[in-house]
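Per reviewer request, we include the raw input and output of the structure prediction for the construct analysed in the revised manuscript.
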Amino acid sequence: MLYEITVPYFIKMLHNLEHILDKGAKFAETKKIDMEVLLNSRLAPDQFPLGRQIQIACDTAKLAAFRLTEKTAPTHADTEKTYAEFQERIKDTVKYLESLSAADFKGSETKHITTPRWNGEWMTGAEFISHHALPNLYFHVTTAYSILRHNGVEVGKKDYLGAMPLKK
């Protein structure tokens, strides 16, 4: 069950993040702005810049999947500086997620999940996904979207939501 509500949505949102970053790169090229300016932009002085938002979105997805499945996730040194490097990190994370199957998540709903920041406290896998992993991923993708929009990149709700399985 947790596979169905995690991996497809992690992948979808990371692809949407790729898409809005593409729009940011095209905007920077058109306006003759160094893309690094956008990657270092933030909404508030005490908030992480766009580049760090991308890193955390990727980490949230891959580490949530790792914690639930114990399938080794790719490691990233957080040294990305360029648009191409951030896009490669997203692609690498998606590739890892695509390597997972529903069977890998067997029993993960009741598994005790913790992180180093929680000082020994834990949640079940189901609680971890609904109270931490999904909201955290959406927060950082939303913030990345908002940073780009704040800087004049023409992104809208459809860019954030991505393709939807509409039916006739």
